[in-house]
Amino acid sequence: MGLFHRKSRPVPAVLPPQVQLRPGTNHPFGMLEGYTPLHSPEFALYRAIREAVPVVDAAIWKLIRLSGGVTARCPDPNTEEALNQFLRTVKTGWNQVGIQSFLDGYLDSLLTNGRAVGELVLSHGGTDVEAVLCGSVSQIQIKESGSPLELLLCGREPDGSSRVLPYQELLLFTPYQPTPEAPYGTSLLYAMPFLSNILLKIYQTLGVNWERAGNVRFSVVYKPQGEALEPGAARERSQMLASEWSAAMQSSRSGSVRDFVAVGDVEIKVIGAESQIPDCQVPVRLILEQLIAQTGIPPFLLGLNWSSTERMSSQQADVMTSEITALRRTLTPPLEKICRLWLRLHGYDPRVEILWEDINLQDQVEEAKALLYQQQARRLKLENDTLEDERNGH
Q: Between vectors from CA 214 to CA 210 and to CA 217, what angle results, nearest 5°?
């Protein structure tokens, strides 16, 4: 017997192995599934939404194209002609020329990321505007200055710190729909991650179901009649049936027709033929309606013909016109800053007015009818005024 009594140690429980690598996501845009709304913008998330949902990307490009067409007006005609020539020929990077190409990229960042940044590049000596470039909002940080009416744009250093960019007067910054909670802009897509995730799950499940149901698999069952087969003979016959069925399928793939002949009770079924793929048209349409409503564009302009009588009504045209006008109001201040800087560098009067092309969303026949009715009303008014004057003895 031992001198010391040892206490029995508890046997440690066997823990299951810990998974270190997570499995793949359900759909290729897994960022949408793990999204948690935060105050900081998620630029990569918004780009993923545009890539994953083509109708959203098409809607944004429609807004960009409809918002185009800009010129400048100056008090002096010669100054105006020179300024418009500059707007048509200014370099905007990546072999792009013209202020419209700059506005396309600027508005694309504005709608997608909720903010846009740009830069005016001066020539050597600072006597002319050499180029107008769009910047990446993910590489810019915003710092509030001492004045509540000013802010500073900072660049990110490789070590993670930020530094105030030296020439703030040459930088452009525009927020989209700023709010007290998000003073630096709100993306047009900020309310779409949840519904986009559901839509992608439906599409992914639909593709998997079609892959299973479309790639038909057969079940061949042989039932011997009136005879008892030994295990070896049963295995031999099953292998023979399998080889003959495989040969028949291979022949059909190459385009030839080959019959499958068997003796006995042979039953051939399609695996999964009894199950039907769920109809996804209704839920997909409900989600797309919510996503498209966020963009403000009528569905049929995006190729979604949900009704055979859909057309651009006057009310829809007015709403679209107001949406485009609001986007143009947002783009006017950076355009004015570009034009004023160019005018000052060349010694011209810095007064300038930004003019946008007319928005034409109405049918020309309807416009012609409206113009005809206006002229008829004007003629009737003149006739009534003439009759009144004659009655009064004038």
A: 125
